[in-house]
Design brief:
single chain, Mlu1-box Binding Protein, DNA-binding Domain, 5 helices, 4 strands, globular
Amino acid sequence: MYELKEDLSIEDMIYEIRGKQVMLDCDLAKLYNVETKRINEAVKNNPYKFPERFSFFLNDFEFTNLRSKFSTSSLESKYGGRRYNPRVFTEQGIAMLSTILKSKVAVETSIRIMDAFVKMRK
């Protein structure tokens, strides 16, 4: 079974934006053990599976507001920062993403993420 790194708390990676609980593309990449660009390529190659209610890009205001709330390390790349605002995924978008990534790690990670969303609702 895939072991989630001890220092990664899924609940701490869930944010409320536009009235929805979402996770950042870069945080999902860490959890799925892939590069952020792989997450975004999956969406780009399957746009019909990701309507706006499943996944969307943060606007400038949302991105700035989010960055001001915590350490920006997860939002900055090692090559001088992001070129685009991050994409975020709702719970449904994350479930769809796991069907595209198709790995044992993706399935196990998605289960843990879904459990975290349920825990946050309680």
